[in-house]
Specification:
- The protein is of the alpha+beta class.
- The protein has one domain: q2cbj1_9rhob like domain (Jelly Rolls, Sandwich).
- 20% of the residues lie in helices and 23% in strands.
- The chain contains six helices and 15 strands.
- A hairpin with a 2-residue loop joins strand 3 and strand 4.
- The chain is globular, with a radius of gyration of 17 Å.
- The protein starts with a strand and ends in a 5-residue tail after the last helix.
Length: 271
């Protein structure tokens, strides 16, 4: 694993040319200290509240997308992958109005980008934890682009914006990417690796030292995965919120939306 050598970028209301050039070259960028530790704790409180509500309701899907369930280090049932979270929580919804998010669509110019709060899977919250009954401790190599094909569309530029809620040095697992692969041809985008099945390390993969409050952005066409933690229990826990920035035709979802067929294959898999 190679650690990404990234300047200590901060995100303001407008991206600098240095930041745009870095992202264009690598397909990924880190903005340090996007939110404070107090804000991190506020978001975690709201996530726990939303989790309790959905577990009490027995909810299994949101807008057609299945939730992913598992158990924590105490054997308690948890939601390990939320979706459309900000549509069901006022604090999370208001958080997405931070004006700094409006700077990010410049990365997909000349296309017009927008925050997909009610598109794709909306605001996704991933709770990775390694326990005997966890269903979500890692994620195999993939890009985010084939979903466009499954929906009958051509592949359009998109961004996945991650707000990290736990400290996660590279040695504890976490995000891995193959920098520059966002510029690959269609054949490599679709066939360079076995989607979600391949968890193997790549000699060229890049890892990150992440701190709670950092924000990452990666191009949806970039090959990436989530490395499993070498630890178990609380020390392995990694919570991240992801919101997509989308281009192209708007396809909002609602409670009448059908489950995309690819979820029938993958949402019960134990990773």
């Amino acid at each position: 694993m190679i650690k990404l050598e990234c300047p200590n970028f901060t995100l303001g209301n407008k991206l600098t040319q240095e930041q745009l050039d870095f992202f264009d070259k690598n397909g990924v960028i880190i903005f340090r200290n996007f939110i404070t530790r107090d804000t991190v704790e506020t978001l975690l409180t709201e996530i726990n509240t939303l989790q309790k509500t959905w577990l009490d309701e027995g909810r299994e899907k949101v807008n057609g997308t299945p939730l992913k369930f598992g158990k924590d280090e105490n054997g308690q049932k948890i939601i390990q992958r939320f979706c459309f979270s900000s549509l069901h929580n006022t604090v999370l919804h208001e958080f997405l109005k931070d004006p700094r998010f409006k700077a990010l669509p410049a990365m997909v110019a000349p296309f017009e980008g927008r925050i997909g709060e009610d598109e794709k899977d909306g605001l996704v919250i991933n709770q990775y934890i390694k326990t005997p009954d966890s269903t979500f401790s890692q994620m195999g190599w993939h890009t985010d682009s084939p979903r466009d094909i499954f929906l009958g569309q051509r592949i359009m530029p998109m961004l996945n914006v991650g707000i990290h809620l736990d400290d996660c040095p590279a040695e504890n697992g976490g995000l891995r990417v193959l920098t520059g692969t966002h510029k690959q041809g269609i054949l490599k985008l679709l066939f360079a690796k076995k989607y979600f099945i391949d968890n193997n390390e790549d000699a060229q993969e890049v890892g990150f030292d992440i701190q709670a409050g950092d924000l990452t952005v990666h191009d949806g066409r970039l090959w990436h995965r989530v490395q499993q933690s070498p630890y178990t229990g609380l020390k392995s826990r990694r919570r991240v919120m992801y919101i997509p920035i989308i281009t192209g035709k708007m396809i909002p979802k609602n409670e009448q939306s059908k489950t995309p067929f690819y979820h029938h294959f993958g949402h019960k898999a134990k990773f």
